Amino acid sequence: MGMQTRRTWRHRALAGVAAASMVVLAACGGTTGEETTGGGGEGTEDLPLIYGVFATPLEEPWDGAIHAALQSAVEDGTIEYKHVDNVNTADAMERTLRNIASSEQPDAIMGDAFAAEEAVRKVAAEFPDIPFAFGSGEDPVEPNMSVFDNWLQDPAYLAGMIAGGLTESDVIGVVGAMPIPEVNRIVNAFVQGIKETNPEATVKVSFINTFFDPAAAKQAANAHVAAGADVLFAERDGVIAAAEEADIPVIGMMVDQEEEAPEHVVTSLIWHMRPTVDAVVEQAENGPAAVDLGEYSFMNVGGSELAPINTDVVGGVPEDLVQQVEEKEAAIMDGSFTTPVDESAPAGSIDVSRQ
């Protein structure tokens, strides 16, 4: 299926149904969440209740992608869903999870554990009959702690090819969260993609050392622009605003962010969490497991993709570059090309000609 027509997942993921009743968990340190049910709330007593517990506000695309996938499952009538977000400390995460597990008794709990690994695993051990599935850089733990991650190296490589083909200054700027493996492999794949289309380019990489600080990310992006970057990669929220002000192309992250700046977002790395959600729903129905769900995020199983290329972006996108990217995408899908996975910390300034 061509990249210009692949919008089905995006439409379904953003079409979740809003709900009526509120879940008051602010006392535990999070923002009040919404209860979301399928089929107008009718017959939901027979559906598994999945609870989302998110460390950041849902405006942060990483957690937003999980939330959107859960909402799409609601729309399909397969789950009942409640959530709380902005649970931004380990202590708050522990209290919130324990409160939800004991009072709500959900059939499964999903969220992100990167900043609160110990807290999440502690509570999971206290409730062994409830499947816990959390974004994590650590291993699963028997009997009920499964892990997942955003394995986006394939769309990152393709996006890098685009960035390398668009830059005129041969300088590209990247703003990431922090140099941890799950971020590093995306940035490194992006750099490798740049190398394929522009071996003379230099990539400037900076980290804001937090998962959500749009002001800091924008400031870092502006520094790259001042240093000559004329294409940006928004691994973190805030970079697109800088690209729009500088009137240069930018690559989005997690969801198709074209609507945020239609003249500047050339494409985005999209994380489709629905295959992972479906695997967790199976645990909710059949009993907990302790597995690594990372495989469900790979491009060849529908867990990730590159958003349709926006050829109307400032400066345009050459047709031959689009063709190159489509050919590489086909090679990834048929297995004739495997994107390298490099989780080492990238340097602050990378001369791809020396790699």
UniProtKB/TrEMBL annotation:
SUPFAM superfamilies membership: Periplasmic binding protein-like I
Coiled-coil residue windows: none
GO cellular-component term (any): plasma membrane
Stretches for region Disordered: 335-355
Subcellular location per the Swiss-Prot or TrEMBL entry: Cell membrane
Protein name from the UniProt record: BMP family ABC transporter substrate-binding protein
All residue ranges annotated as the ABC transporter substrate-binding protein PnrA-like domain in the record: 61-287
